Amino acid sequence: MARNRFEQVDEKQEDAITLSLCKAEDNVYGTVTVPKALSAGKVPTDLTTSRMPIKDAFRGAIRLANGPSRQELAEVVQDAWLARASKRRAADWLSSHRETLA
């Protein structure tokens, strides 16, 4: 089984899940970005979580990196994007992907 690599980078990566850590005043938080490239073309934009406690951000990034298959990850990203998209954009996207979702 292939092992995932974790490395420090200075910017979001286009082909990897990115955990960003930030400090605002006295609070440290994290966000997790899943690039659209990992969705197998199923979502039009990258998905970035809202700010969350750093412990939750680490757990989320590690779960995404180690857990689902590429297809399952694509479905997670797709579902998350649809939950955040406007009703019109979500309906348009679902309509245009009807055959691939069946």
Polypeptide structure, described:
This protein is α+β, with helices and mostly antiparallel strands and 102 residues long. It has one domain (18-101). It has helices at 54-66, 70-84, 87-96, 98-101; strands spanning 18-24, 27-34, 47-48, 52-53. Strands 1, 2, 3 and 4 form a four-stranded antiparallel sheet that branches. The mean pLDDT is 77.
Strand content: 15-25%
Structural class: alpha+beta
Helices, by number, come to 4
SSE order, one letter for each helix or strand: EEEEHHHH
Please count the beta strands (DSSP E, at least 2 residues each). 4
- Are there runs of 5+ residues with pLDDT below 50, and where? none
DSSP helix fraction: 40-55%
Mean model confidence by pLDDT:
77
- Whole-angstrom Rg: 15 Å
Structural shape: globular
* Number of separate domains: 1
- For this structure, the quaternary state is single chain
- Tell me the span between the first and last alpha carbons: 30 Å
The major pleated sheet works out as: 4 strands, antiparallel
